[in-house]
Amino acid sequence: MPAVEHLLFDNTFVLSPQRSMYWVEEQTLILSDLHLGKTGHFRKAGIAVPQAVFKEDMQRLFSLVQYYKPRRLIVIGDMFHSHGNLEHDFFLKWRNDFAALPIHLVKGNHDILSLKWYDTAGIEVFKDDYCINGFGFTHDKEEADCSNHRYTFSGHLHPGIALPDGRRQTLYFPCFYFGNSYAVLPAFSRFTGIYTIKPRKGEKAYAIMKEELVGLGY
To answer: Model-level pTM?
Structure first.
């Protein structure tokens, strides 16, 4: 599982092309924008999205937990996409296999399931932000007070970056984005679009190209 280390305030964050981040010192796996149940939501609306998309996302999550063996999982919002459907039931079965793993969810705009459902799933929910040793986690940094964080991790944007291919065309890739005071993680689900970002001088991005991360300094 090829990965890249990114250092922040003497802490090591391992970035994976599987759209995840592992915080070494805290033994914590961090993801954003899983949108579990989105394919089922589309199918209920009559749009023929194959369930294989959801199953592939769940298999990647399973593999990451098996590989890193984290002591906690943090999801920075939009863990689920909408109201309950059969894919949420499938998640509960997956959850039973990892019942001892604490899951902390910072709610996103799509996390609209009832608190009772999250409790049944063994998910601790945080409304606006969650903080560990000065590192903050919030879904949308524009809608949260991050003044008490020395550095903030967020999601929501589904960041991507545009790169020329050398043949007068532009290719678009999901990416990790690191600014001076905050980072934006890529959407974990591959069934999402991307929002093109334009890093400024002194910032860093890591483009996800198939199974490889390519660091880009500005």
So the answer is: 0.91
